[in-house]
Amino acid sequence: MAWYGQPFGSAEGRLQRTSVSIVRAFGRTPVQNSFIATCLAALGEEIGWRGFLAPELYRLTTFTKTTWIIWAVWHYPAIIFSDYHSQAPRLFDLFTLTVTVLGLSASTIWLRLQSGSIWPAVLWHDTHNLFIQGVFLQMSTETDLSKFIIDDFGIGVMVVTLFLGIVFWQKRFELPQALPVQEQKAGSHRFLRN
What are the DSSP calls for 126-187, one per residue? Predict the structure, then answer.
């Protein structure tokens, strides 16, 4: 199923490959299978990042500022020790992914906190992974510069996600000043009911 992009060489990649095997049994088209598989992989991350970490940090600050660096550093071992990297130098990949995650984090946290659910963030994360790794990467032509421009580690994705991050950062004042009382009582398990 290489048509949807090379999965990570990490536990997330194994989850994605397992997810593909599971949904293949339900007789869906390859595109549906890929969307479901990447959604399951994104759900795994989003339960931790936006389901638990973001609301907990939001109780301490008005807008979560630190989640992005934790999220970026969490990807570092996969970039350094596995096949989750581009053909560019690894330091370039670490830098661009860190900045990319800054933009993605602002938008996904805003979606999570504004909606009260992790599902908008899961779908955003899933769509990003599916199109960046599966569609756009497969449509790209490899050149000497492409390793610096395309994929999760490219300047193109970095610029777009940073722009989106700035837009959502400016919208942070639209977020509730505090989490709803029912969410505070329910703790981080609220995502299961949505």
Answer: HHHHIIIIIIIHHHPPP-TTHHHHSSTTSHHHHHHHHHHHHHHHHGGGGS-SS--HHHHHHG
- For the chain, the residue count is 194
Domain range for 47 is: 2-193
> Which residues, 6 or more positions from 187, have their beta carbon under 8 angstroms from its beta carbon?
none
Query: pLDDT tens for residues 45-94?
Result: 899 888 888 888 888 776 666 788 888 999 999 999 998 889 999 999 99
Taking the C-alpha atoms of residue 3 and residue 75, their distance in angstroms, rounded to an integer, is: 23
Backbone CA torsion sign across 88, 130, 137, 83: positive
Which pTM was predicted?
0.72
Question: At a CB cut-off of 8 Å and minimum separation 6, what does 119 contact?
Answer: 191, 194
Phi then psi for 137, rounded to 5 degrees? -60, -40
CB atoms within 10 A of CB 184: 12
Number of domains in the chain: 1
| Residues contacting residue 17 through CB under 8 Å, at least 6 positions apart | 7, 37
Q: Which tokens is 178 given?
A: 């505090």
Alpha-carbon separation of residue 178 from 59, 104, 175, 181 (angstroms):
7, 22, 8, 8
